[in-house]
Amino acid sequence: MTPRHRPWETAADFQIGLRPIPLADWLEGGEADPAARKDPLFETVRGLVWAEAEGSRPAQAEAGELVDAALGPAPLRPDLPPLYAAARRTPDDLCLMEKDAAGQWRLTALSLSAGSFFTAEAVIGRSLGELHGPVTGFADRFLVRVQRVFEGLRPELALERRNWTVLNSDALHTPSSAPIRARLGEVTPRDAGQGLHLRVERQTLRRLPRTGGALFTIRVWLAPLGSLAAEPERLAAFAAAWRAATPELRAYKRFDLYDDLVESFLADPQPA
Ligand code: HEM
């Protein structure tokens, strides 16, 4: 099956790409027991997957209320931070943003089971500008507009954006790129359809009306590259996107490392 989201079909460059979605579509679900995946990470590598700033509990609790409203009530877990108690109910990672006294939106708590090359302990407390420091051109092209989006969020509005990359890993929990890229040599041109994976992030943003915070969600969807082989039009759209990606996007996502394998797959697309 081709992936549920195919953002490469609509953009060859970095983009803000936020669009309103019905509130009913906010959380996509589809994972039977997210806690079974998240709890072991929370217990064993907590600093990678969980962080909270002092004073964030009221907004964490409000974020939990949004999740309860979407999924139905759950037994209380006073033993857990409220944002983590909510995050273990949904496949999505949950990131809480709050405006500080100087007017900067900052990350004040996050549950990050499927981080794409970053960790909770590294990003807690960062402003929107600091979070996106590694993204080429973000400060010049996007920062002011994204800050305005945060200011303009309304309670009845849910926004969605998506991004994508290709990776030689089918793991959701990928705090660091180095161990994954070190194994790239294990993928041969013949098995690129199985060894390479499309990694799509579907992100959403909502206002927390009472505390004034904002809840940013990240859901990672994975599919082998070979899943495109059965659908020629989808395959052609991916090939076009791969080849049209801007130099900045290619450099940021290290497409250079994957070029030969992806082109081998496109020349002889073997199903996964
Ligand atoms: C809703 C407005 C936002 C927009 C438009 C946005 C945009 C972007 C873009 C364009 C990238 C580069 C990869 C991609 O194409 O997605 C990116 C990366 C990233 N974003 Fe955002 N973002 C937003 C909100 C957030 C929030 C609230 C967080 C807080 C966790 C965040 C954390 C990150 C991180 C950690 C990266 C990776 C940076 C790295 O390479 O180290 N973003 N974002």
List keywords for this structure.
272 residues, alpha+beta, 7-stranded antiparallel sheet, 13 helices, binds protoporphyrin IX containing FE
N- to C-terminal distance: 10 Å
Helix content: 25-40%
Bulk shape: globular
Order of helices and strands: EHHEHHEEHHHHEHHEEHHH
| DSSP summary, beta strand count | 7
Largest sheet: 7 strands, antiparallel
Q: Total helix count?
A: 13
**Structural domain count:** 1
Q: Say which molecules are bound, naming each kind only once.
A: protoporphyrin IX containing FE
Strand adjacency order, main sheet: 1-5-6-7-3-4-2
Q: What's the overall average pLDDT, rounded?
A: 97
Estimated radius of gyration: 19 Å
What fraction of residues sit in β-strands? 15-25%
Structural class: alpha+beta
Q: Which stretches are low in confidence, meaning pLDDT under 50 for 5 or more residues running?
A: none
Write up what this structure looks like.
The protein is 36% helix and 19% strand. The N and C termini lie close together (10 Å). A hairpin with a 5-residue loop joins β3 and β4 (105-111). It has 13 helices and 7 strands. The chain has 272 residues and is α+β, with helices and mostly antiparallel strands. The chain is globular. The protein has one domain. It has helices at 34-44, 46-49, 57-71, 82-87, 120-123, 128-131, 138-141, 143-152, 178-181, 192-195, 232-244, 247-253, 255-267; strands spanning 19-21, 50-52, 93-99, 105-111, 158-167, 197-207, 214-224. Bound molecules: protoporphyrin IX containing FE (HEM). Protoporphyrin IX containing FE is lined by residues 14, 16, 95, 97, 107, 118, 123, 131-132, 134-135, 146, 149, 161, 163, 205, 216.
